[in-house]
Design goal:
This protein is α+β, with helices and mostly antiparallel strands. The protein is about 50% helix and about 15% strand. It has two domains: about 35-285, CorA soluble domain-like (Beta Polymerase, domain 2, 2-Layer Sandwich); about 290-350, Magnesium transport protein CorA, transmembrane region (Methane Monooxygenase Hydroxylase, Chain G, domain 1), CATH 1.20.58. It contains seven helices and seven strands. A seven-stranded mixed beta sheet has the order 2-1-3-7-6-5-4, sandwiched between helices.
Length: about 350
Amino acid sequence: MKSKNPHKRKLKRPGAPPGTLEFTGERKLENPVLLRIRFNPQELEAKKDPTGDDVFATSPDVVTWFDLMGLHDVKLIEQFGQQFNIHPLVLEDILHTQQRPKFEEYGNDAFVVVQSLTYDNATHDLNAEQIAIYFGENFLITFQENEDDTFKAVRERLEMSSGRIRSRKSDYLTYALIDNVVDNYFEVLDRFEERMEELEAEITDKPSRTTKENIHHLKFQMLAMRKSVMPLRDAVNKFSRCESNAVDETTGIYLRDLYDHVLRIADLIETYRDMLNGLVELYHSELSLRMNNVMQVLTVITTIFVPLTFLVGVYGMNFDNMPETHWEYGYFYLWGLMIVIGIALFFYFKRKKWM
């Protein structure tokens, strides 16, 4: 099975000046989709692909969440940059879909990059999607590559008027979105664990060259996940220590809990990597054991036939003065002797448990 690299994408054009807006990802939608959600404790308004002069309008009385799916429209990204005074380097990072997870402050605003991961049960590939989040005191913008249900659980929580998320600002919504992505990491790790159990059973049952390839494929996918999770530790830690006006102090306790979750995932990844190395060793040990068993059987067979071959060789010589060749029943005596020797050696090896 050929390993798939979930992070292999088109690179930025060499020599381009900083802030150059160029989409380097894979176009996954025909047209971008914009979902705008405005909410406060009393009301919630959601519109798909809103039109009019108030598309980018915000208000201090509500939190406005712009969820943009599809990043190939560079002009639309530029519009967001102009409307919300987003630094060109941030826009460049949004379009360059090969970023490491990170957190950066820009005055009263902040920028977060995370990797959303899903596990394909059919191909056993890890699929990665970059999600960029830019937020201020009363607005939040998410930039996704796909039109999917990554944040379905968060939208359902928003629809509950009694939920905590409706009474908080954009910083808490940002925490909820990242927490949703991190929760999916646990599901991915569960799939990894199930796959490792399948491979372990395959090794002990009937290992083959395909088994070895599948183990290395899984190791490659685990390495890709590690590259997405390890930088996220620093990003969440910086987020929890952010002093921007856009981040409320009361959100810090939730961010610290999120940081603990990321640490747990990082520990699990290291544990599973060790388990995969153990599977490789188990594979080689199982092959060696099977080879030893084959060699043991062949050795026993060879040992039984050595004395028989000796007897046949002796009486196959063409000397005239060999008394046994003139016995009336010499042929049957020789067969009887060879059968007795063979049976005796067979039971001797069985008693020694060599076969």
